[in-house]
Amino acid sequence: MYSLNICHFTSVHPWNDIRIFHKECVSLASMGHRVTLIAVGEDDREFMEKGVRVITLRNPFQGRISRALRFTRLVVDRALKEQADVYHFHDPELLPHAVKFSRLKRKVVYDVHEDLPRQISTKPWIPGWLRPAAARMAERMELRNIRNVAGVVAATPLIENRFRVVHSKSCCIFNAPLLSEFERKFNPDYASRRMVYIGVISEKRGIIEILKALEKVDGRLNLAGKFESEELMNRCKLMSAWQKVDYHGTIGREAIAQLLENSCVGLVTLHPTTNYLDSYPIKMFEYMGASLPVLASDFPLWRTIVNEQQAGLCVDPLNVDAIIEAVNRLFDNAELCRNMGERGRSFVLNQFNWEAEAVKLNAFYQTLMH
Asked: What is the gyration radius of the CA atoms in the chain, in angstroms?
């Protein structure tokens, strides 16, 4: 093992993105590597943060197409000025630029956060009739350009397997919870009769079914995050269950920790869309790390994880009666919640955490240097 000069870059994510900055970049810097991050910012500036040299670039272009066609060039040109041993990028729209690094004999890594073809099939801003063709085009683009990268980092085994067929240097680096956020002892109020949901609030993530279930449950909902649209937020506020919701908006990590302790059940009842079925939802594992039992969608992968760890219950996310029954079972048994919560926390602390993934990422970089 030896130290490297590493440059991460993104044309979409802000510099303080959890996976890119707080997990990957900070971990690599703590291992002794020289790490530079080029990311989106409100202005052009350079600063040091947690051992990482951060360069932010302002995007002067409007709209997704202009960003993909024009801003990406600015980001790539700035990255190429770095004399890095490894370049590591995080957006599909940057993949066509990988050929520039290949021609210059630079080692570049594609970090695949989500399964792009499956993700496109659920994008609301793409007309429904166009999504199948757009998904096929995206997959062809990825597979055509992947030959120009030195390696692929995938966030799930399903994504890794899709790329391993065409690229031997592929590895899975889970977006697992940071141990540092769960080192302190969490003491959830298992008798609070409060569910909690944290994250993007959308119909596909189950908010309507959650509120319908809440109407029939003796309890409350701690809700934090940004609504997908103002229309959805207004619709939710008109539902009778809204009077039992404590909506906290978008909050920071410390406020999230306090919210988790004021709850007794963590919700991750996402709809069975193609891009969720084989995902590893970070919020589910963060609930576990905070000693909360989870109420999760009954997808085969999620059911295997939750049942093997005995860390919660799984339900059909579209079945309101099933959600009601599961919530009542947990609300009425604080000791069951405590036991499930402790088992989930043990799983995160001892097996599924970012610190273990960071070691894998560092080892993967080393293989690229040979």
From this structure: 21
Half-sphere exposure of 319 (CA within 13 A, CB side): 13
Angle between helices 282-289 and 300-309 (to 10 degrees): 10
**Distance (Å, whole) CA 38 – CA 202:** 30
| CATH number, domain with residue 288 | 3.40.50.2000
Give the Cα separation of 176 and 179 in Å (integer): 9
> Domain range holding 266?
179-350
- Count how many domains the chain has: 2
Say yes or no: 34 and 69 in one domain.
Answer: yes
Please check whether residues 186 and 219 belong to one and the same domain. yes
> DSSP characters for 289-326?
HTT--EEEE--HHHHHHHHHHT-EEEE-TT-HHHHHHH
The count of C-alpha atoms lying within 13 angstroms of the C-alpha of 34, restricted to the half-sphere facing its C-beta, is 6
Do residues 197 and 221 touch, judged by C-beta distance below 8 A? Answer: yes
Contact between 195 and 218 under an 8 Å Cβ cutoff? The reply is no
Helix or strand holding residue 123 (H, E)? none
Which amino acid, one-letter code, is at 7? C
CB-based contacts of 165, cutoff 8 Å, min separation 6: none
pLDDT tens string, the chain, 370 residues long: the values are 569 999 999 999 999 999 999 999 999 999 999 999 999 999 999 999 999 999 999 998 887 777 877 899 999 999 999 999 999 999 999 999 999 999 999 999 999 998 866 776 666 767 777 777 777 877 788 888 899 999 999 999 999 998 988 888 999 999 999 998 888 889 999 999 999 999 999 999 999 999 999 999 999 999 999 999 999 999 999 999 999 999 999 999 889 999 999 999 999 999 998 889 999 999 999 999 999 999 999 999 999 999 999 999 999 999 999 999 999 999 999 999 999 999 999 999 999 999 999 999 999 999 998 7
Structure tokens at 68: 């993909």
- Give pTM, 2 decimals: 0.88
Distance (Å) of CA 77 to CA 74, 94, 248, 343? 5, 12, 40, 48
130 with 234, same domain? no
For residue 89, the cross-strand partners are 9, 110
Where are the strands (E) in 50-106, listed by range?
52-57, 86-89
